[in-house]
Structure formats: structure tokens, C-alpha cells
Specification:
Structural class of chain A: alpha/beta
Distance between the termini of chain B: 24 Å
Mean pLDDT of chain B: 96
Low-confidence stretches of chain B: none
Radius of gyration of chain B: 23 Å
Radius of gyration of chain A: 22 Å
Oligomer: heterodimer
Distance between the termini of chain A: 46 Å
CATH superfamily of the largest domain in chain A: Nitrogenase molybdenum iron protein domain
CATH topology of the largest domain in chain A: Rossmann fold
CATH topology of the largest domain in chain B: Rossmann fold
Number of domains of chain B: 3
CATH class of the largest domain in chain A: Alpha Beta
Strand content of chain A: 5-15%
Shape of chain B: globular
Number of strands of chain B: 14
Strand content of chain B: 5-15%
Helix content of chain A: 40-55%
Number of domains of chain A: 3
Mean pLDDT of chain A: 96
Strand order of the largest sheet of chain A: 12-11-10-13-14
Structural class of chain B: alpha/beta
Shape of chain A: globular
């Protein structure tokens, strides 16, 4: 067999660039506006990408590099851009993320901001994060921004009993669900970020410059006083995260969890909340678990032994793998564009008996996925709408979850987490398989 | 509404004298412009060339955000719908990306056998100093196909400069093919991107008139057609912002005259056909008659239905914010055809002469804005109490959030809006959004229905 040299190019990437993740995280802070220090196009492309998923206004400012700026530095543009943004939007916070251009010319944004004095009457705070798109993916940009927010804003002080929650890049519906669960346990969570309202808001009478909702800056500042931090995501780094920083600086205990996708991962999550709160799992959630497992039993034969390709952000892939494995679906390929180096171990740790047969690949693109998939005979794909071309070629259903969903509505409303999210995932997977079998019947049937 | 001081000269209300509107300048930092960048300009123009390899040289983002996002259809190859990036990493930035580019190009050409390759430079390529031209030359010679660098570094100007860079790449191709067999009554269609199959509609009209279409640039575009485009007798230029440079160069260097046209709206569509017929009147006996017959046939099909829509839409108010100002003219006229008033109109990249023309076209009190932003646009929608906003993806949530109907006239659309049939589709789409009962349930809509 001739060894095929890996391609130098990325074809149909299964990842986006770091500044997108920064903008998404910053949308989850109350009164904050994302500001990219870079070229005009970066803001515009990211806006249209996020808008097409969330179907909400996503305003992102940019300093707008020109040839002169690139040669002489972007300090002037940065300063006038911040002032102009403040004049229009009256933000409480401006989060500045760099793109590849200033990073490459060696712009020291921290230094520029240190010397910056807003000329606006309305004061605003700034944070900055380095997110060159040649380093990592949108998920890395997201986590780096969360960390920057915490490192640059959180303060210590008397303990306030709240719980810091770093949920990762979940959906607005997931964030709302998490808040409800914490509330049901009598816990006071500070979610960072929280775009449950800013990126899934109601109709308005008057246009809001900055959409209502998000983690209040005051809460963010108080994160150093929390009882504990919960960090969600099995592929998160052990060190250098927001929660690690709070632990180092302020001694806030850190607990690491996987995304609670499926029964088993959700059990771990609920057990953790029980321990933290000292209360048993509230009956409402115990009942949801009961109904979920009951539905697993009702439909187990429709899904057992089916083969799935799972793709997307690494933590989502791990969560979905846990869920699929527990219902008897064999994940045959677990792929991500991310390259944390922790995906294989994380997938194997949740896959149980299914682990043996799974091919796990970080740094994969959709073209390669399509090529690999042909030999794997999958029954369905589960991941973002960007897997459409692969699913179409294979003629198998694509179950749309995660980010991004550009060819259907409602991406922001998909619930992945907890027993309730697993119920929705389970129904979606089962019904997709039932629908496909029905479509393929030569005579059709109306009874299953 | 607090419009930034620096932005005030870029907003005009018809009636104010003297007419003053700044345009064609770099966006104000921090203003949240709706514009994109040089790369976007190049990418959008060249994107529909379906048998070419489009390789974006730079970090991943620029390629990822432009993967299969356009409605530009191809009747054959689908290569343009794939996203290729050299995906530069930190080490590439430090050591230079030339080797990776050459390797990526060679591998992709071997894999896909394209007729040509376009290599788009993104921001940092302009900074790290890769000699993209040299790599393209070398790979082109090795593989025996044109490999064309597109100088589209995002920071080197505005989207307009990207259009120009794309035209420069196209100019490398035009003139390299044989013009054998091209007749004297022949055109190139420039500046139609075959969104939802629009260029097929237009092409069909010309063929019915007896006009040969040599190359469609770039909608449903093919490299071999572009190479022989210099054999056409006339260039028809829609989307003049993007294609004027190519048309002017072909006039200057090849002596091919051009006409500006638009295929949107009944008046502009008919005018485009009549102008073309007029141009070929001497060479093609009967062409004017054939054209008139075609136009009346098409109108007979659509006018009764358009009249029905008009009855429902009469007096409604519209706002328009699009990329190029030339499209805005057609939209104002098309909306008028539906009995609707355009109370706000603007563009990302209009020029002084475009805005002069827009001002002539619009009614008193109409707001004209250059390089606007979400806060301005939302305030215009609210102030003017509009029923319909026409724009692209970034404008849509502004309209929807305020309970205002929306019509997508950008490159993503799946419905053809060009040609006579397109006008009917446009009328239907406008009606479907304006007449939807959902507005009654929204806070702003409910208030308006009450009053």
C-alpha cells in the first residue's frame, strides 16, 4: 500500500478562527461590545457567521487596519475606534480581541490600552485578549477570552456563596437550562459567558444598542469571591484556564466536569451539584431522568448497533459520544477541527464498550471526513450543519446539533445538556432513523 | 439618533441644499460598518468560476467564512463550492508560507484537475512577505494551467479594491483563448453571479434575440469561456462597481465597447435588452422587433400577477441598504413599480456619481446613507416607519428585531430576482414578508395596527 502524503491544505474546515470565539464569549457579558483590532473584513465575516446561526443582531466593532496602519501600527485606530464605539453604544465594557494582522506586526495591545484614556463622558472598562487566527480554533479563542475576562476583572473579597460556572460553547437554550438547574438546587451561579438572552432575545419596540442580558460585570468582578468554580468540558486544559486562574489567585476551588450530555454524564453533573448544594437532585429533574430512561427502553431496538459519525467542537464530540454509547449506537468516527491533543483520551473515557471501535481524529476537515467516512458505513451523522455535504454524499441523515446551524432555524434553541437535552437528542436521533427507514420502504407504512 | 460626528457628512436627507455626501473613503474606526474587506471583494467576484481552484492563502478564518455561502449556481462543475485554505500556523507565519502554498497548490491541482487556480492573499501574507507571484508562476509552469495570484490582502483598501484585484486576475485570462467561431452579434455578461440561476434567465433572453453569449463573468463561469471573452462584440456590465475595471480595460486594450445594464426590475431589464438590440441593429436585422416581441411576451405573463401584488403593496414604505449603489437604483424603480416608496436608501461602496443619480431618483425627505451601520440603520427604520427593508444577512436581524419585513437581495439568496420572472419573484417575496400576519403579534407591529 502506498502511503498517502497528508495534504498541506485544509479543505472545508471543521473549525473557525479564534476571534470568532472571542466575539461569541464577549456577547455573553452584560453591556459589553466586542471590538476586533484588525481588518474590517474580520468583523464583518464573523458577524454574518454568528447572525446566520443565532438570527440576532451581532454588532462587532473593528479598528480597521489600512496599509498605513499596518506599517506604522494601529494605536491611533484603536483609540479612535474605542472612543467612537463608546459614543455610539455607551458600553460598560469593551472587549478587544486581536486578529492575525496586529499579532503578526507585533502590536502590543496591552501597552496601548494602558496608555489609553477614553475621551467619552461615559466611562467604560476594557479587557483584551490575544486571538491570532493562526493559533488554535474558535474554541481556543472562546476559552482565552473567558480567561482574559476573569484575569482582568475578577477580584477577591469576602466569600459570597455563589458558584462560578464556565459552561463552554453551549447553546443559549443550554445556558437557560443550566441556570434553571442551579436555581432548583438553591445555588446561585455566575455563568460566564451567558449569551442566553443576548443571542436569543425577544422582539423589540425600540432597537437596543446592546441587547439585554449577559453576565453582569459586577458579578464577573466578584468571581474571586465564589465558593467554587465548575468548569465544563473534558478537553479543557488542566492549567491556564479561567477556573485555574481563580484557584491560583483567590483560592476558589475548581471542579472539572464533562458536558452533561446523556444520562451518565448528566448523572455526574447532578451528583456534583448535590454535593455542592448539600441537597438531593430535585424531583423535577429525577422525573426527567426517569422519563428519559423509559424512552431509551421504548426505542432501544431502533438505535442499537447503528453507526454514527460525530463531529464538531471537541467537548461537544465527547458529550455526544457519551450519549450515543449509552444508547447502543456505535460511534465510528469522532472528529473535530480542534487540536487540543486531549480528544482521544476524553472520548475513550466516556465511550465505555464502544471505545474500541472508534476512530478519534482531531485537526480533521470535512473533505477528509468525507473520504474516511466512505469506508465506515455510517447510518447517520451528528454535528453542525456544515456536515451537510458529507451527509449528502453518503446519503445518510444529518442530525443537526451544536454550532453552527446555517441551513435550518432554531440552532440557538437546541438543548443538548442534562436529562432534558438528552431527551431531545434521543428523540431526534431515533426519529431520523425511523424516518429514513420509512422513506426507503417501497410501499410505505403508517405504523411503527 | 446620535450619528458620529465623522459620519455626518455620509448621511443626506433629500431636500437639504447644497447636496453633500461623502463617500468612497475608509470606514470610521469603531463605527461597526457593514462593509467587508479587500479579500471579500475579490472572493465574491471570482467565487462563481466553477472549474477553477480557489485557494485562500492565510490562516483558516478567511476560507472558512466563505465556504459555500453564495447562491452562485453552476451548470457543471462544483469545485467553486469547496473551501481551500493553506491554514497558516504560527510556524508558517514565522518561517514564511511559500513552501506550504506550493505544496498545497500542487496537491490540490493533482486532486481536482482544475482549469485554473486563483490564489487569494489574505492580510498576513502581505505582512510576512511571501512571494505569492513567484509560487504561482512556478506551479503554473509545472502543472500547465494558469495559476493566478489575487492581491486581496484585507487591509489594502476597501472591498472596491478587492473587485479591482479580481478584475486584474481575470485580465490575465482574457485573450489567452481562441476566438474562432464567435459571431459578430455576441456579448459577454459581466457582473451577474448566477445567484439562483439568474444568468440562465438572462442568457435565454439574449439567445431568443439572436445574441450569442460568449462568456458569463463570473456567474456559471468557466475558465475557457473567460479566455476567449475578447472575441465578443460587446460587454454588458451589471454590478458596475465590481466589473467596471474589467470592462474599461477590455475597451481600452481590446477595443470592446461596453454598456451598463441592470437586470432587476421591469424597466431596467427591458432597457438592457433594448440597448443591446440597438447596439446590434445594423448587424442583426430584425433584432429590435424580436426584442420587443420578447419583452411583451414576458410582460404579458407577469404583469397581471404583479398588478395584484401592487394592489396589496401600494403606499407601503421601503428602506434599501445594499453593497453597490447601482443595484439600489434598480431596487428603487422596482419598488416604485409595486407602488412602494423608498424612504431610505444606502450602499456600502457607492461613488459620488452613484449618489447623484440616487438623489435624482428619490423623493423628498428620503435618507441617503453611505457606509452605514446597525445603529443608524435601525434608527432610520424606526423614524421612517418602514414596512420593508431590503439588504443582506447583516441587515436582516436589524429589520426582524424591529418587526419589519425583509427581502434578501444579497449573494446568499436562493430565489432568482433578475429578469422578468425575477421581478415577479421579487413582488411575491415582498408581498410574502410585508403581508405576513406575524407582524400583528410583535410589539411595534401591534402598535402600528392599532393606529
Amino acid at each position: 500500500m502506498i502511503a498517502i502524503e497528508p495534504l498541506a491544505a485544509t479543505r472545508n474546515a471543521c473549525k473557525l478562527c479564534a476571534p470568532l470565539g472571542a466575539c461569541l464569549a464577549l456577547r455573553g457579558v452584560a453591556g459589553a461590545v466586542p471590538f476586533l483590532h484588525g481588518s474590517q473584513g474580520c468583523a464583518t465575516y464573523i458577524r454574518r457567521y454568528l447572525i446566520s446561526h443565532f438570527r440576532e443582531p451581532v454588532d462587532i466593532a473593528v479598528s480597521g487596519f489600512s496599509e498605513a496602519t499596518t506599517v506604522f501600527g494601529g494605536g491611533d485606530n484603536l483609540r479612535s475606534g474605542l472612543n467612537n464605539l463608546a459614543r455610539q453604544y455607551h458600553p460598560e465594557l469593551i472587549g478587544i480581541a486581536t486578529t492575525c494582522l496586529p499579532e503578526t506586526i507585533g502590536e502590543d495591545v496591552g501597552h496601548l490600552l494602558h496608555d489609553f484614556h477614553p475621551d467619552s463622558d461615559a466611562p467604560f472598562r476594557t479587557i483584551h485578549v490575544s486571538t491570532p487566527s493562526y493559533k488554535g480554533t474558535h474554541v481556543d479563542g472562546f476559552h482565552a477570552t473567558v480567561k482574559a475576562l476573569v484575569e482582568q476583572l475578577a477580584e477577591g473579597g469576602p466569600a459570597n456563596g455563589s458558584i462560578n460556572v464556565f459552561p463552554g460553547m453551549v447553546s443559549p437554550a443550554d445556558l437557560r437550562y443550566l441556570k434553571e438547574v442551579f436555581d432548583d438546587f438553591g445555588l446561585v451561579p455566575i455563568l460566564l459567558p451567558d449569551y442566553s438572552e443576548t443571542l436569543d432575545g425577544p422582539q423589540l419596540e425600540e432597537y437596543q444598542n446592546i441587547p439585554a442580558g449577559g453576565t453582569p460585570v459586577a458579578d464577573l468582578c466578584a468571581m474571586g469571591c465564589a465558593r467554587a468554580s465548575l468548569e465544563m468540558g473534558r478537553t479543557m486544559a488542566d492549567t491556564g484556564t479561567a477556573a485555574a486562574s481563580l484557584e491560583d489567585k483567590f483560592g476558589v476551588t475548581r471542579r472539572k466536569l464533562g458536558w452533561p450530555v446523556g444520562v451518565l454524564e448528566s448523572d455526574r453533573f447532578f451528583t456534583t451539584l448535590s454535593e455542592v448544594s448539600g441537597r438531593p437532585t430535585p424531583e423535577k429533574h429525577a422525573k426527567e431522568r426517569g422519563r428519559l430512561v423509559d424512552s431509551y427502553v421504548d426505542a432501544h431496538k431502533y438505535v442499537f448497533g447503528r453507526r454514527a459519525i460525530v463531529f464538531g467542537e471537541e467537548d461537544l464530540v465527547v458529550g455526544l459520544t457519551a450519549f450515543l454509547a449509552e444508547i447502543g449506537v456505535q460511534p465510528v468516527l469522532c472528529a473535530s477541527g480542534g487540536e487540543s491533543g486531549r480528544l482521544v483520551e476524553a472520548v475513550k473515557s466516556v465511550a465505555g464498550d464502544a471505545a474500541e471501535e472508534i476512530v478519534v481524529k482531531g485537526g480533521m476537515d470535512f473533505a477528509t471526513m468525507g473520504e474516511v467516512a466512505r469506508g465506515l458505513a455510517p447510518d447517520f451523522l451528528i454535528g453542525s450543519s456544515k456536515g451537510y455535504s458529507v451527509a449528502r454524499e453518503l446519503d445518510v441523515p444529518l442530525i443537526r446539533v451544536g454550532f453552527t446551524i446555517h441551513d435550518r432555524i432554531g440552532g440557538q434553541r437546541i438543548l443538548h445538556l442534562g436529562y432534558r437535552g438528552a431527551q431531545q437528542l434521543f428523540d431526534a436521533v431515533t426519529n431520523a432513523l425511523l424516518a429514513r427507514a420509512q422513506e426507503r420502504s417501497p410501499v410505505g407504512y403508517s405504523y411503527q | 439618533m446620535n450619528i458620529l460626528e465623522e459620519r455626518k457628512p455620509q448621511v443626506y436627507r433629500k431636500g437639504a441644499e447644497p447636496f453633500q455626501l461623502d463617500c468612497n473613503k475608509q470606514s470610521v474606526a469603531g463605527s461597526v460598518s457593514q462593509r467587508a474587506c479587500v479579500f471579500c471583494g475579490s472572493r465574491v467576484v471570482l467565487y462563481p468560476i466553477a472549474d477553477a481552484l480557489h485557494l485562500v492563502h492565510g490562516p483558516l478564518g478567511c476560507a472558512a467564512y466563505t465556504w459555500d455561502i453564495r447562491g452562485a449556481l453552476s451548470s457543471g462543475p462544483q469545485l467553486h463550492r469547496l473551501s481551500f485554505s493553506t491554514d497558516l500556523r504560527e510556524m508558517d507565519v514565522i518561517q514564511g508560507g511559500e513552501k506550504k502554498l506550493a505544496k498545497a497548490l500542487c496537491q490540490l491541482i493533482d486532486l481536482h484537475h482544475p482549469k485554473a487556480a486563483f490564489v487569494y492573499s489574505t492580510c498576513i501574507v502581505g505582512v510576512i512577505g511571501d512571494d505569492v507571484e513567484a509560487v504561482c508562476r512556478q506551479v503554473g509552469a509545472q502543472k500547465g494551467i494558469p495559476v493566478l495570484p489575487v492581491h486581496s490582502e484585507g487591509f489594502k483598501g476597501t472591498k472596491r479594491d478587492g473587485y479591482r484585484a479580481a478584475c486584474e486576475a481575470l485580465l490575465q485570462l482574457v485573450g489567452t483563448g481562441s476566438t474562432d467561431g464567435i459571431g459578430p452579434v455576441s456579448v459577454n455578461i459581466l457582473g451577474d453571479f448566477n445567484l439562483a440561476g439568474e444568468v440562465w434567465i438572462i442568457r435565454d433572453y439574449f439567445e431568443k434575440m439572436g445574441v450569442e453569449v460568449v462568456a458569463t463573468i463570473t456567474g456559471d463561469g468557466r475558465i475557457d469561456d473567460i479566455r476567449r471573452a475578447h472575441g465578443a462584440a460587446l460587454n454588458l456590465v451589471q454590478c458596475s462597481g465590481s466589473m467596471m475595471h474589467l470592462a474599461k480595460q477590455l475597451e481600452e486594450k481590446r477595443g470592446i465597447p461596453f454598456q451598463r445594464v441592470s437586470y432587476f426590475g421591469i424597466e431596467d431589464m427591458a432597457q438592457a435588452l433594448y440597448d443591446t438590440a440597438g447596439f446590434f441593429a445594423d448587424k442583426s436585422p430584425g433584432i429590435v422587433g424580436r426584442t420587443a416581441a420578447l419583452v411583451s411576451q414576458e410582460l404579458a405573463v407577469i404583469m397581471p400577477q404583479i398588478a395584484q401584488y401592487r394592489r396589496k403593496l401600494e403606499g407601503r414604505k421601503a428602506a434599501v441598504y445594499v453593497g453597490g449603489a447601482f443595484k439600489a437604483f434598480s431596487l428603487v424603480r422596482a419598488l416604485r413599480q409595486l407602488g412602494m416608496d423608498t424612504v431610505m436608501v444606502g450602499s456600502q461602496t457607492g461613488l459620488r456619481e452613484d449618489y447623484d443619480e440616487l438623489r435624482e431618483l428619490c423623493d423628498e425627505g428620503t435618507i441617503i446613507a453611505d457606509d452605514s451601520n446597525p445603529l443608524e440603520l435601525s434608527s432610520f427604520l424606526q423614524e421612517k416607519q418602514v414596512d420593508l427593508f431590503i439588504g443582506g444577512v447583516k441587515e436582516r436581524p436589524i429589520a426582524y428585531k424591529l418587526g419589519v419585513g425583509f427581502c434578501d437581495h444579497n449573494h446568499e439568496r436562493k430565489e432568482p430576482l433578475a429578469g422578468f420572472l425575477g421581478m415577479l419573484n421579487f413582488a411575491r417575496e415582498v408581498y410574502n414578508t410585508v403581508a405576513s400576519p406575524v407582524w400583528k403579534l410583535t410589539p411595534r407591529g401591534a402598535a402600528r395596527y392599532r393606529s
